[in-house]
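Researcher: We're reviewing a set of sequences before deciding which ones to prioritize for further study. For each one, I'd like a predicted 3D structure that I can look through quickly. This is shikimate kinase. If possible, include the structure in token form so it fits the rest of the review sheet.
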Amino acid sequence: MEAKLLQSLHLTTWTGSDSMFPIPNNSMGLCTRFDKKRRVNMLKCNLERSIKPVIGHRAAGLKVSCTSQNPPASVLESGTVTTEEDLVLKKKSEEIEPCLSGRCIYLVGMMGSGKTTIGQILSEVLGYSFFDSDKLIEQSVGGTAVADIFKLRGEAFFRHNETEVLHKLSSMRRLVVSTGGGAVVRPINWKYMHKGISVFIDVPLDALAQRLTAVGTASRPLLHHESGDAYTQTLKRLSKLWEDRSEAYGNAHVRVSLERIAAKLGLGDVCCINPTQIAIEALIQIEDYLKK
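Model: Here's the predicted structure for shikimate kinase, in token form for your review sheet.
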């Protein structure tokens, strides 16, 4: 059944990308723990091809997180080194996966909030497939970058095709989907995402501005390049986007607040939180939602 659905995923007008970008090791969103020797298969697509997902297989042991915040490591029977946080993540995923009953997980949040990295981690531990909706759109038009799509065709064209992507994906099961930051603005998109479980990754705007400024905003079409201090201008633009989208983010079934995670862990700065900790909190919040 899933194979047939994948074969039907032909997108003839797609156009986006909200993939993760390189940031310093101590920043909250980047972790290479799943990059090396990852058991995935993404086939390049064009207008005539079907789009195949990145497949996340459950590993016998999880790989070491790349931050210094993790407790001392232990070794699983498989010989793979893993941290205590990884073990917690694995245990929690095994508890929750049967309760999901195959429902998809949709990650929403502002640009740069780490949706792709968190989505990859969740898909691996749950044994789900992973999709980045912006990447699917990019690949379908021969690799055209989101910024270029916005420039050449406009935001309305992109949003229309974003909706079609979510429509197609919503007919599938056992997926983790990383959506673009603005996917929440169209009510029709919520109709599709609410077929699964939507998870809002809530990151303070100042932390997002620091991250985006550090890596540059050239690939972010909605962050206009203006004169003046880069951080100040980025924060200003993010604040305007937040005003337009904050109410829409409230439609998510689950909210994962980095400020709440920092408080629980006794951390003074959300930038000290690593992706594993965010993924654990996401599973905890999903579990709470499922119990309602």
